[in-house]
């Protein structure tokens, strides 16, 4: 098939992880991969779309591009939506949801533009079939997305359904948990390898250690869930079965991993254990209740990675001011030979921890700008002297 006939797609991801996602979709078979802010565009056949949804650890959604046109007002957007042959993608008996994202759009109301797209879809179905689909904003069969720039409108069909960070294993949630795809991206940025030890001393609900274990055992993150493409008219059940079976066969469940998590609070430890049980990883990850600074490294070298408590999760700023220096001293005294990574939106952490970061990677946790700080602990060095 000529490359110009291969459908165009766009995969979204947490900002800061676009390069990782580009490498991932290319490895999974995508072509013409291009990085933009918040995601990557690429060309993919059905097999590749199924694989990206099933196997991508970084993507949030995989969207099939339907059409792009210039626009000046809501009428132009309505005409663009009405011109689509929606019946080739889904049945009139299926429920829909429409979402619109805009960047520098001149329209006064994005909600009204969304309503006009819904009207156009329903009007087209009424013309073609005499009936119209129902709208379901909570659990729709099909999701349509519109992206508006200053002068162009693009329509997408969502092939993912629920966001891909919803792996299906997290039954218990702590306050402000990391999304699973952001956690997987953080693990990838540390450069951790399955033969290395990994420790999260403030693991909360266990998302970082669970994602690391799935990486180490080569478990496709989507094996425990369903996808939007299963409800589209071009769904190929035989092809999907072969893609899923290949992912099942690729797992390395007998691999021995050294992954450890702990938390000061009993509730978080129990939540982490329950989430790991749900993921089938109880025998892979070791979890215990302990204060971070009471822990000692399980091996001479490894990776420490954590999302330390901050803001309302710990309360007063005085507590933070006391915590961070203790963490710095603890790493310096006990973790020589380790690579240590702290993901935080608190700008005071690098000041309080009193170690010189070897790398600072900007990442976004939703709309919150954060940093992943890397500390390579070498005995007798890296200490920033007090002035």
Walkthrough of the structure:
The model is unreliable at 381-387 (pLDDT under 50). The protein has helices spanning 18-27, 46-55, 74-82, 110-129, 180-190, 207-216, 237-250, 266-278, 317-334, 349-353; strands spanning 8-12, 31-36, 39-43, 61-70, 96-102, 142-148, 152-158, 197-200, 258-263, 285-289, 302-306, 338-344, 359-365, 368-376. It contains ten helices and 14 strands. The chain has two domains: 3-158, VC0802-like, CATH 3.30.2130.30; 180-221 and 252-376, Rossmann fold, CATH 3.40.50.150. The radius of gyration is 23 Å and the shape is elongated. The strands form two sheets. Strands 2-3-1-4-7-6-5 form a seven-stranded mixed beta sheet. The chain has a seven-stranded mixed beta sheet with strand order 10-9-8-11-12-14-13, covered by helices on one side. By secondary structure, the protein is α/β, with parallel strands linked by helices. The termini are far apart.
């Amino acid at each position: 098939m000529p490359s110009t006939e291969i459908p165009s797609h766009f995969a979204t991801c947490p900002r800061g992880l676009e390069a990782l996602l580009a490498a991932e979709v290319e490895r999974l078979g995508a072509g013409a991969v291009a990085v933009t802010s918040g995601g990557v565009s690429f060309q993919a056949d059905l097999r590749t779309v199924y694989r990206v949804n099933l196997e991508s650890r970084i993507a949030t959604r995989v969207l099939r591009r339907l059409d792009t046109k210039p626009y000046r007002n809501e009428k132009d957007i309505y005409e663009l939506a009405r011109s689509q042959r929606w019946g080739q993608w889904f049945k009139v008996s299926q429920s829909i949801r429409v979402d619109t994202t805009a960047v520098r759009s001149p329209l006064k109301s994005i909600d009204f533009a969304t309503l006009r797209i819904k009207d156009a879809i329903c009007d087209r179905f009424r013309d073609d079939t005499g009936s119209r689909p129902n709208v379901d904003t909570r659990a729709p069969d099909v999701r349509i997305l519109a992206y508006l720039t200053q002068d162009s409108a693009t329509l997408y069909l969502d092939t993912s359904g629920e966001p891909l960070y919803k792996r299906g294993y997290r039954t218990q949630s702590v306050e402000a948990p990391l999304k699973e795809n952001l956690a997987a991206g953080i693990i990838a940025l540390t450069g951790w390898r399955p033969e290395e030890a990994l420790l999260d001393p403030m693991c909360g609900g266990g998302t970082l250690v669970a994602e690391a274990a799935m990486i180490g055992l080569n478990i496709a993150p989507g094996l425990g869930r369903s996808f939007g493409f299963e409800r589209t008219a071009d769904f190929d059940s035989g092809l999907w079965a072969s893609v899923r079976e290949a992912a099942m066969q690729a797992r390395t469940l007998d691999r021995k991993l050294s992954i450890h998590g702990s938390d000061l609070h009993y509730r978080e430890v129990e939540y982490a254990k329950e989430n790991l049980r749900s993921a089938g990883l109880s025998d892979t990850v070791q979890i215990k209740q302990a204060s971070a600074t009471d822990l000692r490294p399980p091996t001479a070298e490894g990776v420490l990675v954590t999302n330390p408590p901050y803001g309302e999760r710990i309360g007063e700023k005085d507590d933070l001011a006391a915590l961070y220096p203790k963490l710095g001293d603890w790493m310096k005294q006990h973790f020589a030979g380790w690579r240590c990574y702290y993901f935080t939106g608190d700008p005071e952490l690098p000041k309080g921890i009193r170690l010189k970061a070897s790398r600072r990677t900007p990442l976004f946790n939703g709309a919150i700008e954060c940093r992943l700080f890397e500390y390579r602990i070498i005995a007798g060095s890296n200490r920033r002297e007090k002035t």
